[in-house]
Each structure stands twice: as structure tokens, then as C-alpha cells.
Specification:
By secondary structure, this protein is α+β, with helices and mostly antiparallel strands. Helix content is 29%, strand content 24%. The chain is built from 13 helices and 21 strands. It has helices at residues 16-27, 43-47, 61-66, 76-81, 84-93, 113-126, 180-187, 208-211, 248-254, 278-290, 310-317, 330-341, 397-412; strands spanning 8-12, 31-35, 56-57, 68-70, 98-100, 105-108, 130-132, 137-143, 146-152, 157-159, 162-165, 196-198, 202-204, 216-226, 229-240, 244-246, 266-271, 343-350, 358-360, 381-383, 391-392. Strands 13-16-15-14-17-18 form a 6-stranded antiparallel β-barrel. The protein has a 5-stranded parallel β-sheet with strand order 7-2-1-11-20, covered by helices on one side. Strand 5 (98-100) and strand 6 form a beta hairpin. Helix 1 packs parallel to helix 6 (113-126) and helix 1 (16-27) runs parallel beside helix 13. It is elongated and about 85 Å long. It starts with 7 loop residues before the first strand and ends with a helix.
Length: 413
């Protein structure tokens, strides 16, 4: 074998997984060239976490697996090979301070996603990674079940000893995620599982959502069901929009809307006061009502709900707004409590890839070596990041998958 054997590595895609794979491989002495079809690196990273970039989660490693929706077992060696603490350490040692917010979400101290990208770009520059922007890869060059390089869109062939595909999914197509990696994988003989948007807002039937547009609810509990089957239950924050609902709770819930439920209406129930049992809530209402016996019902709700929500809660209560408090029957009060504990909405479907944070589905992990991310079908071909059939809930977990699988592939080459 010559000195140069295995030296040249091509990475396709300059997102989180691609940049991290490039840094890792270059750090092990490889000559790395990264091809990115956009005019800049990390376009999708730039907009994650509303531009703040929730780069990982500071939970225990075991908890990482609990937040992965698809194929958590496959990620075992990747997460243990490069865990969330190591991800935080990487950015800190490269001069980017971080901070941890509620739910273990880790952000750059500056609140600027550009710092995450800048840190990765600096690391690549220091290690001599050659970055080629505005360069689209058209196909993989494969000879005798071994990848030997790539064909660029301008017709040039670039040869390499190893190729890592980190082209992302189909989410936010404006960032260049157009599913190229799925095509490369299929052309190489890989199975690509069914693809759908995930971590995505939901459309709602009721006009109430539109009337509540812009209202955020914190500390509520949401239950999503298909008929009698409970698909998801979670506690946190959500927001109403002109089309329906969004926010961390809703995005997480969307991960559980499997293919078989898409197209059928689902029930979304919001517990507006999850900290109080029915009895405790009844006690609180009795106290509040007791202090305002002669006031009209509509004028006694400001301590219970945000202003925007009051008219809708009055309608849902079926109690006449002008009714005096002392005239409200026990039955009416009980019915009102039920409406507070179960604010019902009908989900008619998920929004599309333009609004989904990630893509569910991808290259079948049965055909990938979990410790190195190398293809079991084509020698010297590696996959990392969202192109794989793995996805997780919101809270920094999907980026941790990118760092961990990118690291595994970088080490694997």
C-alpha cells in the first residue's frame, strides 16, 4: 500500500453533520474536500432555534435515547462514541461559550447561530479542509461495489478514497435540502424508508386557533389522540397561529403522527391548568366566585386566562357572559372546569416540508455499520446526519445526532 492510501476524503454537504465529519477526519490527518451546493455553509443551522441554534441537550446520555423517535438503538455506539458533553466541550474549547436553558437546551452564550457555524468553519480552516462552495455533486462514482469519487454538476470527476454523504433531508428546501442524498443512496443500492415531514406545525379545523393567533401558552399539557388511542402526551409551551398550532410541544407531538394517521382528523386536547386537579380547580373557582358574587361572569376571568383567551373560554363554557356569579349552577361550573382541563381542537393535518424542522425516514440503518456509519453495501461510502433514518424530538437532540454520526463517520474514514 502506498503512503497516500485512504488519504483523500470527500464530504458532500456543508451542514452540521458534514462540517463535523470534515473536522473529525481532517483531525486524523486526512485530506478532506467538502462540497456544498449553496453559496455558504450551514444554511439550515443558521435558522435553527429561531436563529439561536439549540446545539445539543445537557441531559444524561441515557436520556438522549429516550428522545430519539426512530431507531434509537442504532445510535448506541455513535452517542457513546461522541456524547453531548463532548459536543459542548468541542465548542467551548474552540472559543465559543455556551449556556444551558430550561429543559436542558444548550445554546451559544451569544444567542447567535452564526457563532456555531463560525466555530466549525474556523476548525475546518485550521485543519486544512478544502471547502468548495456553489459546487453541486450530481452522482457518486462507484466501481465494483466501491465508491471511488463523485461527479460534479459541471461534469468534472473528483476521485477520493472515501466519500461521506451528509446532504440532510427534505426540510426547509430553501436551504438546499432537496433530498439529493436519498437519490445517491438509492443509486448505490440502498433502501430509503418512507419520507415525511417531522417536527412540524399542525393545521387545525376550528376558527378559534385563528382568533388566538400569536398567543403563547406556557406550562400546559397537550394530549394528541387518534380515536381512543393516545399518540402523545407532553407538558410545556405551544402557540396558536393563523392555520393552527405550533411551538415545542406541538412539534414534538408531530413526531408521533405516524403515516397511518395522516389524513384522518386527530383530537388535540389542551389542559390549560395541568398543575391543578379537577377538585383543586373547583376550589379555586369557588373562592374567586365567592369574592365576586354580584359580578358578571365575563368580568371574573382575568386572573385565570390571558385576555385573548377569555372570550373563547366564555363561548366554550356555554354560560351567558352577563350572568351574575351567584346565579351560576354547580353543573355549569363543573362543565366549565371540564372545558379548562380539556380545551379540544381537531387536527386536520401536518404542515409541509417548508415548515418542518426535520425529515422523518431516510437511508435504512439496517444497511449501515452503526459504529463507523459505513455502508454495508458499498465499500468506502459513509452516511451521517439527517439523511439517515433517525429522528428525535426538539430540544437539541437532532443536532446531537448530527455531531455524533458526523464524528463516527469522520473516525470511520
Amino acid at each position: 500500500m502506498s503512503e497516500n492510501d485512504g488519504k483523500k476524503v470527500i464530504v458532500i454537504g456543508g451542514g452540521a453533520a458534514g462540517m463535523f465529519a470534515a473536522v473529525t477526519a481532517a483531525g486524523r490527518g486526512k485530506e478532506v474536500t467538502l462540497y456544498e451546493k449553496n453559496e455558504k455553509l450551514g444554511k439550515k443551522l443558521y435558522i435553527t432555534g429561531k436563529g439561536r441554534c439549540n446545539l445539543t441537550n445537557a441531559c444524561d446520555v441515557e436520556e438522549l435515547f429516550q428522545n430519539v423517535c426512530t431507531n434509537p438503538k442504532f445510535l448506541y455506539s455513535a452517542f457513546y462514541g461522541f456524547d453531548n458533553q463532548q459536543a459542548i466541550d468541542f465548542f467551548e474549547t474552540h472559543g465559543m461559550r455556551t449556556k444551558t436553558e430550561r429543559g436542558g437546551r444548550v445554546f451559544p452564550l451569544s444567542d447567535h447561530s452564526s457563532d456555531v457555524i463560525g466555530t466549525l468553519v474556523r476548525a475546518m480552516t485550521e485543519l486544512g479542509v478544502k471547502v468548495c462552495l456553489n459546487q453541486e455533486v450530481r452522482e457518486l462514482l462507484i466501481e465494483e461495489q466501491t465508491v471511488v469519487g463523485v461527479l460534479l454538476a459541471d461534469g468534472r470527476k473528483q476521485y477520493a478514497d472515501r466519500v461521506i454523504v451528509t446532504t440532510g433531508g427534505l426540510s426547509y428546501p430553501s436551504t438546499g435540502s432537496t433530498g439529493d442524498g436519498y437519490r445517491f443512496a438509492r443509486e448505490a443500492g440502498h433502501k430509503v424508508t418512507e419520507l415525511s415531514p417531522s417536527l412540524v406545525p399542525m393545521n387545525v379545523l376550528e376558527e378559534d386557533a385563528k382568533r388566538l393567533q400569536g398567543l403563547s401558552l406556557k406550562n400546559v399539557e397537550v394530549t394528541l389522540s387518534a380515536g381512543k388511542k393516545k399518540l402523545y402526551q407532553g407538558f410545556g409551551e405551544m402557540m396558536f397561529t393563523h392555520f393552527g398550532v405550533t411551538g415545542p410541544l406541538i412539534l414534538s407531538a408531530s413526531s408521533f403522527v405516524a403515516k397511518k394517521y395522516q389524513g384522518q382528523p386527530l383530537s388535540l386536547s389542551i389542559d390549560l391548568k395541568p398543575a391543578l386537579s379537577v377538585e383543586q380547580l373547583d376550589g379555586r373557582l369557588l373562592r374567586e366566585f365567592g369574592e365576586a358574587k354580584n359580578r358578571q361572569f365575563k368580568n371574573t376571568l382575568s386572573s385565570l386566562f390571558p385576555a385573548k383567551l377569555i372570550p373563547i373560554m366564555i363561548e366554550r363554557s356555554q354560560i351567558a357572559p352577563e350572568k351574575r356569579i351567584h346565579e351560576i349552577s354547580r353543573e355549569e361550573r363543573r362543565n366549565f372546569i371540564e372545558k379548562i382541563k380539556k380545551f379540544q381542537l381537531t387536527v386536520t393535518g401536518l404542515r409541509d416540508y417548508n415548515e418542518s424542522i426535520i425529515t422523518r425516514g431516510g437511508v435504512s440503518v439496517k444497511e449501515i455499520h452503526p459504529s463507523t456509519m459505513e455502508s454495508k453495501l458499498v465499500a468506502n461510502l459513509f452516511f451521517a446526519g439527517e439523511v439517515l433514518d433517525v429522528d428525535a424530538l426538539t430540544g437539541g437532540f437532532n443536532l446531537q445526532i448530527a455531531w455524533s454520526t458526523g464524528y463516527a463517520a469522520g473516525m470511520g474514514v
